């Protein structure tokens, strides 16, 4: 087996030209060789790349694989040899294991249930309509990212957490710097300091004047201000950047698949399935990491304790052993179970909110502009680099008949 | 069919509610799964099996 083991020594820096929705060719190839490949990190660490559906899902569900930040001492594209990585700051539970993780996730879960998120539908419809009104008033061409995809989820998460609307712009800029994948170290540090200052003010303000929102509700618990800052950071950054990229990249994908778009327009009841398919097909949260806490047998290989594993959600969601014609966008696809929101204890806390946002926003956009189209040739749409944690378009110029 | 739940494992993802809403709900307090119909009618079995498979934390079992 080990003779035929496929090895990767770098992460692909870009996607194949003309295929903005497909994972980089090197990763698709790796999966074709088998669901697990060797990955040699730039610092020499011999880790693994897991690219097949079953194995990715198995690792995500397995507590022997850790999400702890302090164990992730190897970077997939940069040599930081010998660097010490501190544990995740209090409240930032994405990069924690139990029991630390549960201390922060548990008090939030009741606030993000299917029912509670569905109750937001009307408010999301209002916010969406306001942005469509503004687009219509401005007239084509419009950048869909700034006019629609970014502000709608940002306003929703701000209202849910009780972040004053005026503060939104200030915070969004920093998040863009963190997640855009193109900032220098100095820019990252400046954004980090600005964010921490902002969160400190926010939590202090809620402590002094609790209002009717998720953050204020948490003030009654034994969580410290430092912990609340961390939780707010995770919620805001996740809420700002992910759905936004799904909305913009999703619209791009629909416009590039006119038959699918026409089918969706003809049958609005398809929207729930269409959203799941766009999540699978685009997998904007494309890869995550885990570290083995003990030796684990996985797909015929032994993952040694302390070894880092790269989980490629986007290739797992394109695995032909799990999805028929995986590279085809089929809005009527019946096969559920995509991993776009991950699996296991870290599965997306905001997934039901993201679903409501997408189920409202896509149809509203398509209904308002029956002649919606790209305002530039498709190959001029500027994409985020592969170094970005969340994939998407930087801007999406669109037009319509007036 | 009988449904059994390990509430200690549930992480409140809502996948079961989304998949078989006539059988599962989530608690208003802690977001954990609430089984509305521990012995679901036959027409729900397929959805229940799907929910069991999708549950991210293996908190559900359906004993046929
Ligand atoms: C379409 C949009 C979204 C996608 C694709 C997405 C994707 C993901 C993924 C893949 C993870 C798991 C990471 C892992 O396994 O290590 C995750 C976790 C998380 N997401 Fe989302 N997300 C989306 C929207 C949101 C929204 C709107 C929120 C706002 C509340 C949110 C909040 C979170 C939080 C708090 C976590 C950490 C959960 C934990 O560690 O227990 N996400 N998301
Ligand atoms: S799918 Fe599983 S983890 Fe999610 S709410 Fe239902 S029982 Fe809990």
Pick out the low-confidence regions of chain A.
none
Strand order of the largest sheet of chain A: 1-2-3-9-6-4
> CATH superfamily name of chain A?
Cytochrome P450
CATH T-level topology of chain A: Cytochrome p450
- Beta-strand percent range of chain B: 15-25%
C-alpha Rg of chain A (nearest Å)? 21 Å
Q: From the helix content, strand content and strand pairing of chain A, which structural class follows?
A: alpha+beta
Structural class of chain B: alpha+beta
Mean pLDDT figure of chain B = 96
Number of domains of chain A: 1
Described by strand count, sense and barrel closure, the largest sheet of chain B is: 2 strands, antiparallel
Order of helices and strands of chain B: EHEEHE
Number of β-strand runs of chain A: 11
Uncertain regions spanning at least 5 consecutive residues of chain B: none
Described by the principal axes of the CA atoms, the overall outline of chain A is: globular
Terminal-residue CA separation of chain A: 62 Å
Q: Counting H and I runs of at least 4 residues, what is the number of helices of chain B?
A: 2
Total tally of structural domains of chain B: 1
| Strand arrangement across the biggest beta sheet of chain B | 1-4
Give a brief outline of the structure.
The complex is a heterodimer of chains A (402) and B (64). Chain A has 402 residues and is α+β, with helices and mostly antiparallel strands.
Mind explaining what this structure looks like?
- The complex is a heterodimer of chains A (402) and B (64).
- By secondary structure, chain A is of the alpha+beta class.
- Chain A has a single domain, classed as Cytochrome P450 (Cytochrome p450, Orthogonal Bundle), CATH 1.10.630.
- Chain A contains 15 helices and 11 strands.
- In chain A, strand 7 (296-298) and strand 8 form a beta hairpin.
- In chain A, helix 5 runs antiparallel to helix 7 (151-161) and helix 13 (271-282) crosses helix 15.
- Chain A is globular.
- With 64 residues, chain B is of the alpha+beta class.
- Chain B has one domain (2-63): Alpha-Beta Plaits (2-Layer Sandwich), CATH 3.30.70.
- Chain B is built from 2 helices and 4 strands.
- Chains A and B meet through helix 3 and helix 15 of A and helix 1 and helix 2 of B.
- Bound molecules: protoporphyrin IX containing FE and iron/sulfur cluster.
- Residues 67, 93-94, 105, 157, 234-235, 238-239, 242-243, 246, 284-285, 288, 340-342, 346, 348-350, 353-354 of chain A line the site of protoporphyrin IX containing FE (HEM).
